[in-house]
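Subject: mismatched residue count in predicted assembly?

I count 516 residues in my input, but I want to confirm that the predicted structure covers every chain. Input:
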Amino acid sequence: MSVTTLHRPTHRDALEALSAAFERGEMVTVFGRCTVEYDGRAASSLGAGDRLLILKPDGTALVHTDEQRTPVNWQPPGSEHRVAVRDGRLRVRSERESPAETLDVRFERVHQLSALPVTGGRAVDVHGSEEDLRQRILQNPDLVEPGFEPAATERETAAGPVDVFGHDDEGRPVVVELKRRRVGPDAAGQLGRYVEALDREVPDGAEVRGMLVAPSVTDRARELLAEKGLSFVSLAPAAADDGGVAGAASTASDADEA
Amino acid sequence: MSVTTLHRPTHRDALEALSAAFERGEMVTVFGRCTVEYDGRAASSLGAGDRLLILKPDGTALVHTDEQRTPVNWQPPGSEHRVAVRDGRLRVRSERESPAETLDVRFERVHQLSALPVTGGRAVDVHGSEEDLRQRILQNPDLVEPGFEPAATERETAAGPVDVFGHDDEGRPVVVELKRRRVGPDAAGQLGRYVEALDREVPDGAEVRGMLVAPSVTDRARELLAEKGLSFVSLAPAAADDGGVAGAASTASDADEA
DNA sequence: GGATGCATTTCGATA
DNA sequence: TATCGAAGTGCATCC
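Triage response: the counts match. Full output below for your records.
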C-alpha cells in the first residue's frame, strides 16, 4: 500500500481517484486552482487561486493557502465529502448537519492529487498544561501558600466547577483558579464568579478566599483582582529546569513578572 | 512553473528538493513516517507514524494525521524552517524566538514530497460576524430597543472598549455588548465589567444600563445578567433570509430561543 | 445534544 | 511589543 498520485488529471480521473480514496479510508490532498464557498454558522466566499485541499477520512476538510496556520476555509470532522464534475469544474462538497454547514470547493484545474494511506499513532503527549500545574500544586500545596490544604478538584458550584478547593492555615475556605499562562481580565472575572457562588453555598460566616495561580497577570487583571479582594500567586506549570517548559516559579502572594 | 514531486526519495534528494523549494518561496508537503518533538510554550512528543507535514513560505509548519481539524503539531508563521540529514533521518526543524519554540520532525522514511507553487488570492470574504451585527444595529437602532440612539462604537473605558455606547429614550447611558452567537457566563461578566467601569466615569447620577445583544443566552448567563441588572436582546448578525446565515432575529427584551 | 472551560488556541487591532 | 477580545474558534468533558 503506497501513495497514489495524479499529475494534472482530467476532472473525471480526479473524481475517480477521490472516490476510490474515500472508499479506502485514505487521506487526500488536492492542489489546484479553485474557488471556495462556505455557508453555515457564517458565510464566506473566496475567489480563484491555487490552494491545497486536504480531505480526511474522518470528514475533516481543510483549504490552505501559502500563509497562516489557520486554513482559509474548512469543514469540521463528521462532515461528508462528495465529489462531482459540473460545468467543467471538479466540485468537492463537504457537508454536515447540526449545525448545518456546507463547504464547496470548485476546481477549475487540478495540478496534483494524492491519496495518502495514513497509519501509525496519533496520540501526542503534551506537557505544561493546566493539568500539570494542578498536579504540581497537589504535590506541593505550599506553592500556593504555606499551610494551604487542598480538599477537592473540580468542586462543583452554581457558577461551575472550581479548579482546586481547599482551606488555608486558619481553616478558611479557599478557591484556586489555575491558568497555564499569563492571564487577563477574563480569568479575574471567572475566579470572582466562583468565589461569589461559594460564598452563598458555604453556610458558616467564614468568608471564601479566592486565589489566581498563573505565571503572571496583566495590569487590568491585577486591578480587577484587587477590587474583588482576590489574591494572585505566580506559578508556572513546570519550573524552567524541570521539564523544558518556559516559565519561572515563585510563591510570593503578590508578586508577578512581566 | 508547476508542481515538483518526488516519490520515495532518498533523504539527500529530499533535502535538496526542500532547500530548493524554500528558496523559490514554495509551499511544501512531505508525507512519510516520522516522529515529532515540540518544545516551547508547552512541550510534546509524538511517536512514529505516517503524517503529512506542510511547510509554508511564511514560516508556518503543520503536522496532520488522518483525524481532526487541528494539526497534531505545528509551528506558527514567522518560524524558520531548516533541513538536515542526521543519523539516517531527514530532520526538518522549525524554530522561532519570542516566544522561543522549536518543532522537530524526523522522517525515517519519506513516501512523497511535493513543492507547490502557490499563487492567487488569499482574501476570504466572511459574512455573519460581530461586525455585521454592529452594522445591522447602527442601521436600525430600534432593533436594540425602541428609542435607542447609538453615540459611539469602540468607546474606551477603564475596562476596555465598549462595542456600542449610546442612550435610551430617556437619555440614560447604555452599554451594548455584541456577540454573533449564543453566549455563556463570560459574556455576561464582560458586559458587567464595562457597565461598572462606565458607572464610575459618568459623573451625573444617571445609572448606566447594560445590554447584551446576541442570538441567545445560556441559563447560567441569564442568571448572571439578572443578578447584575443587565438586559438581553435576541438578535443575530443577519436575518435568516437576509444573507444565508442561520439565526433568527427578535427584539423582545427578555426573550430568547433554545 | 447542550453547556462549560482549556488551548502550544490563532488572529487582528490598538496603544 | 503587549494587551485585549473575536473566531465559522476547536476540543474534551460532563451532564
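The longest strand of chain A covers residues 101-116. Marking this ticket as 'not a bug'.
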